[in-house]
Amino acid sequence: MKTSPRAQSATSLPQAPREDAGSRFTKYMVMMGIRIACFVLMAVVHPYGWYTFVFAAGAIFLPYLAVIVANVGADVGARTAEAPERSLEASDPAAPTPAPAGPTVIRIAETPRLDAPRDDRS
């Protein structure tokens, strides 16, 4: 007999992509700033030496790494479901429950009025 998976709680859902986009954009821009610094340092620092190749490697490979880092979301690991019942206040069982003041459902029926004039132009 196959068991069904547990229902996912709203508190265990991953972060919305719209909320995560700002942090990913910031990471990407920081890495592109480092790439620009590598270009500048590669051309400005004299005499040329082994560190020139390090700056060149940074300028070449940082765009690839920046795209990978920017595309990886913040919610990589699995979250455990949190029980929302813990945050609810316990009600006093001895206290009487108040009766509803009125109807809680409003229904609107859209039927034609019988006394309304009809347009018989046919």
Account of the 3D structure:
With 122 residues, this protein is mostly helical. The chain has a domain at 16-72. It has helices at residues 17-44, 50-71. It is elongated and about 95 Å long. The mean pLDDT is 76.
Number of helices: 2
- Can you give the mean pLDDT? 76
What is the total tally of β strands?
0
- Spatial gap, N to C terminus: 66 Å
Q: What structural class do helix, strand and pairing data support?
A: mainly alpha
Q: What is the general shape?
A: elongated
The major pleated sheet works out as: none
Note the run of SSEs as H and E.
Answer: HH
Strand content: under 5%
> Compute the gyration radius: what is it?
32 Å
| Helix residue percentage | 40-55%
Q: Which regions are unreliable across 5 or more consecutive residues at pLDDT < 50? A: none
In short:
The protein is 41% helix and 0% strand. It is mainly α.
Furnish the topology, listing elements before pairings:
Layout: H1 17-44, H2 50-71
Which descriptors would you attach to this protein?
122 residues, 41% helix
